[in-house]
Amino acid sequence: MKIVPIKTQRIEPNALPLTELLDRAVTSLSEKSIVVITSKIVSLCEGAVLPVDDIDRDELIAQQSDLYLPPQYSVQGHHFTIKNNTLIATAGIDQSNGDGQYILWPRDSWKTAREIRDYLSDKFKLSDVGVLITDSTCGVLRRGTTGIALGYSGFVGLKNYIGKPDLFGRPFHVTNANIAEGLSASAVVVMGEGAESTPIAIITECAPHVIFSEKSPTVDEKFEWDIPFDEDLFSPFLRALEWQKGGTHDKK
Q1: pTM score, two decimals?
Q2: d(CA 117, CA 123)
Q3: What span, in angstroms and rounded, lies between the C-alpha atoms of 221 and 225?
Q4: Which of 70, 149, 180, 183 has the smallest C-beta neighbourhood within 10 Å, fewest atoms?
Q5: Mind spelling out the 3-state secondary structure of the chain?
Q6: Are 50 and 63 in contact (CB under 8 A)?
Q7: CA 204: distance to chain centroid?
Q8: Who contacts 237 (Cβ-Cβ below 8 Å, separation ≥6)?
């Protein structure tokens, strides 16, 4: 698998549509490629930002969350939240590289991935092309950040091993390989987390596990992507906390 980061100019909020940025950055594309875009760039292009002085940070976090924990649970200024069925710090709100702006999560990463996939497929006359929108987060009891997927289109995000035998014939009972999340982690390593100005990457020579699909994930496939709160491996920890219902942000 080959991942090539693409450098762009510094992007200001609402400065240009995402398609125009991609026209400048992605000048060629081959079959069985995946275009990876950081969520921050998507948000900047669609104007999902707020000036820091316009709203209290705690209020904004509560507003942008589906569920959130009260401030007394915060660690080093980071609030624990759940948004779009993802446990994420501060509802994904970020100030880094924001120049005095709170950068929110994209309004609908799945929709954006589908639209960009259609746009690139039509522009370059490709059938097997994917789009992946990423962010980064921290893992439990692990220092540092890794990439995660917020939305994707053009390939199958999960590989289901349930019912298939392992090397010794024992069937798997719960295992799914998260292809989209693995690709996100790999791409974010290459794109970087700081001032690299490489918010786009192209994955080529994809691993055999990456199965391309001309259709976007169905509603059922999106539900398969999410695990119900009470069925999650970490549900005993999640249920033990005093989650509060979040605010009025646009639901996905």
Answers
A1: 0.92
A2: 10
A3: 6
A4: 70
A5: CEEEEECCCCCCCCCCCHHHHHHHHCCCCCCCEEEEEEHHHHHHHHCCEEEHHHCCHHHHHHHHCCEECCHHHCECCECEEEECCEEEEHHHCECCCCCCEEECCCCCHHHHHHHHHHHHHHHHCCCCEEEEEEEEEECCCCCCEEEEEEEEECECCEEECECCECCCCCEECCCEEEHHHHHHHHHHHHHCCCCCCCCEEEEECCCCCCCECCCCCCHHHHHHHCCCHHHCCCHHHHHCCCCEECCCCCCC
A6: no
A7: 19
A8: none
Which two three-digit tokens encode residue 248? Answer: 């009025």
Spatial separation of the C-alpha atoms in residues 141 and 97, rounded to whole Å? 26
User: What are the phi and psi torsion angles at 92 (to 5°)?
Assistant: 80, 0
Q: How many C-beta atoms surround the C-beta of residue 44 within 10 A?
A: 26
pLDDT of residue 217: 76
Residue 67 CB partners (closer than 8 Å, separation 6+): 81, 82, 243, 244, 245, 246
Closest CA to 189 of 176, 175, 203: 203
**Cα 175 to chain centroid, rounded:** 21
Supply 204's token pair: 């080529």
Report, as ranges of residue numbers, the positions in the chain whose pLDDT lies below 50. Answer: 251-252
**Pairing of β 129-138 and β 33-38:** parallel
State both tokens at 21.
């940025």
